[in-house]
Amino acid sequence: MTAQPKLRPGRRRAVTLRGRPELYTEYAADQALLNTPAKRRFAAVLLVALVVLPFLLDRDINGLLTRVFITSIGAIGLNLVSGYAGQVSLGHAFFLGLGAFTAAFLGSEPSGSLRGLGLEMWVWLPASGLVAAAVGALVAPLAARVRGLYLGILTLGLVFVGDHLFKEMRTFTGGPGIGRRAAAPIIGGLDLFRRQTILGVEVEGDVLFYFVSLLLLIVLGVAARNLARSKVGRSFAAVRDRDIAAEVMGVPLVRTKVLAFTLSSFYAGVCGALLAVLYGTIVPENFGLLLSVDFLAMILIGGVATISGSIVGAAFVVLLPRLVQSLTDVLPFISRGGTTEGLFSVDQLQGMLFGALIIAFLVLEPRGLYGLWLRVRNYWKAWPFSY
Amino acid sequence: MDDLLTTLIRGLAQGSFYALVAAGFVVIYRATDVVNFAQPALMVMGAYFTALFTHNYNFPFWLSVIAAMVAVALIGAVSERVALRPMVGEPPFSAAMVTVGLFLVLTIVANRLIGSNVISVGDPWGLETATFLGNVRMRVADGWGIGLTIVAFAAVGLFLTRSRIGLAMRATSLDQEVALAQGINVGRMFGLSWALAGGLAGLAGMVYGSGGTAVDHTSAFVALKALPVIILGGLDSLKGAYIGGLIIGVAEAFTRANAASLSGVVGANVDVVVPYLIMLIVLMVKPYGLFGTPEVQRV
After folding, report:
1. Using CB atoms within 10 A of its CB, is residue A132 exposed (0-12), middle (13-18) or buried (19+)?
2. Which residue, among B26, B35, B98, would best test binding to A if mutated, counting the most A CBs under 10 Å from its CB?
3. Euclidean distance between CA atoms A89 and B296, whole angstroms
4. How many CB atoms lie within 10 A of CB B38?
5. Residues A196-242: tens digit of each pLDDT
6. Which among A31, A50, A85, B137 is least surrounded, fewest beta carbons within 10 Å?
7. Among A186, A207, A187, A174, CA closest to A97
């Protein structure tokens, strides 16, 4: 009996001929996430840079980068439901808050009238995502009844109702203006915020948390990217593009919408829990309508229905305040302090810029920063020809 | 009984304010199919301009109200031309997000203009109250608010049904291309709707700020309750905006009046979320509201 070794799809590396990077000899190579040498190289450089950077940079820049990673998780979640599945949600802040307070309840010690269980991070992190996902799954069948703008307004109502709940459930949230400490990021007795010696290397606390966030972003980001190009992702896109046509083609409408909401809420819950750790103390007011708008701005500026766009958008929105702050030295009409001197204060300018950028991107480049990048890339790909 | 009537009147006044803001939403939605989230920010601008004209320029109050309405109408028309006109033909959600951006910009401009203090619009009624029918108390400002809202709704209704331009606006909302073919300047109708909505928002700003209510840029979030109103009344119905506004206002007032007995069950300040709860229920039961036109989809 002769075996047929040639037909077996082994783990051989794809053979790419020199100078012909886009010649694929195997389906696996064609379908790979990083399917061109340029993408592979760029990803490797980015990864190395992100691993080395925290040891070189200041503490506050590290914190900022950590925040970028964490918000990216939330932005990816919103992009799943609003970008891929086309179900516009203004209620993202509610699910972020749900994750944050669930984590705080599970992960911090009880104090005074506040309840707490004092569990470790490997319990509270998945739990915060799951609780948010469960509530998302409960709300979604209701949300699946309405479409378009009505859905946006419904989810906006959700934020206000959630805000009220957060303010009134004082034994869990601490109540308005007071709040509670976020969950302690402790895994197996290892406090991620304390200076540690790991494998002989002395590591600052914030660097550890940086790496945990980065790892979570990579895992959840790759998961979302793979989901988006699977059967589920295709059904999301079908529902987004024309829901009736999708239903005719056999895509279960309600189930797809519920799944999109549930997944998005899971991401939001995880993001909220981690973001709370970064804040230190969380109050119910943190999770208002403006936070939802922030996240919508991220995916609109970054790029609707792209994972890398969500990350770039999150980075843009998180880093914008810092950018504006450093502009104050250059531009004389921005004041640092109160609202009375200068034309605009830093906060005001940043808010204005934010609104103006949402308008500008929607009007000029609806595909966001990702679309800009596509233009640049396509220009150079075909250079010197125009296309 | 007297308390009941007092609460009812307070609710009607609050509801009239919501109805005025909601009317702006409806006018813009009918003309351009856009839900204008910037409407509450325009309301704050209205309050600001009323205060500016009365306090700084010493206009008589009625004149400063009209001047503020004109000023906000101008802001509305300019916003439409700059930010919304390029969005014609884009999906409704993109246009709605543009108005969210507009909301952010306008709120911050209002914040900058008002400064760190709150302002009062400088109405002549102040904290005066009137008592009638035995022991029913009513703030004078509330009476004016209810009355002016009825006048404003009647004026807008008459304008839309009886005037030539109103007819053109209704034609535009029915079908933009057909309207264009009939020689109607559709773009101008868009601008006009925004100006009309701006004027209504300006008036709403005065109504909000009268009777001693302090105004700052966060007042925009109060005006956001016009969203539950238009969902209850129907996105494209002026009548719905008025009746929905009154229902929401009264519901809120009665919850607030009974807050003490309710707080054990649902917590304090539940009156703030009552409009949104009503909205969620309406969206579940009757998504197009009391008087809205159901959306018909052709495949």
Report:
1. buried
2. B98
3. 23
4. 31
5. 777 767 777 788 889 999 999 999 999 999 999 999 999 999 999 88
6. A31
7. A174
**Contact flag B104-A355 (C-beta cutoff 8 Å):** yes
Q: Does B293 touch chain A if contact means CB atoms closer than 8 Å?
A: no
Partner-chain residue, chosen from B87, B273, B283, that has the shortest CB–CB distance to A150: B283
Rounded average pLDDT over A339-343: 55
Give the closest residue to B53 by CA, choosing from B69, B65, B41.
Answer: B65
8 Å CB contact of A358 and B100: yes
Please provide residue A177's backbone torsions phi and psi, each rounded to the nearest 5 degrees: 80, -20
> ipTM score here?
0.86
The first and second tokens of residue B278, run together, are 């009503």
Q: How far apart are the first and last CA of chain B?
A: 55
B35 touches chain A (CB under 8 A): yes
pTM over 0.90: no
Closest approach of chain A CAs to the CA of B234, in angstroms? 11
Q: What is the pLDDT of residues B54-80, one digit of tens each?
A: 888 888 889 999 999 999 999 999 999
Q: What is the pLDDT of residues B103-161, one digit of tens each?
A: 988 988 888 888 777 778 777 777 777 777 777 777 888 888 899 999 999 999 999 88
- pLDDT per residue over A189-198, tens digit each? 777 777 777 7
How do residues A49-80 score in pLDDT, each as one tens digit? 999 988 888 888 888 999 999 999 999 999 99
Q: Are A91 and A156 in contact (CB under 8 A)?
A: yes
Q: Chain B interface, mutation test: which of A158, A358, A364, A367, most B Cβ atoms within 10 Å?
A: A358
Residue A375, token pair as written in the block: 């233009």
Give contacts of A304 with chain B, Cβ < 8 Å: none
Helix or strand or coil: residue B141? helix
* Contact A293/B at CB under 8 A: yes
Among A160, A244, A300, whose Cβ lies nearest the Cβ of B297? Answer: A244
Give the three-class secondary structure for A202: strand
Q: Please report which residue ranges of chain A form alpha helices under DSSP H.
A: 27-31, 37-56, 59-78, 92-107, 121-143, 148-168, 170-173, 205-228, 231-241, 243-248, 253-279, 289-302, 307-327, 346-364, 368-382
Q: Is A249 on the interface with B (CB under 8 A)?
A: no
A67 touches A278 (CB < 8 A): yes
Q: In this complex, do A164 and B269 lie within 8 Å of one another by their Cβ atoms?
A: yes
CA distance B230 to A113: 41
Amino acid identity of residue B224, one-letter, is L
Q: Which of A155-164, B26-35, B261-270 has the lowest mean pLDDT?
A: B261-270
In the three-class reduction of DSSP (H, G, I as helix; E, B as strand; rest coil), residue B138 is classed as strand
Q: CA B252, B253, B258, B263: dihedral to nearest 10 degrees?
A: 40
- B270 in A contact zone (CB under 8 Å): yes
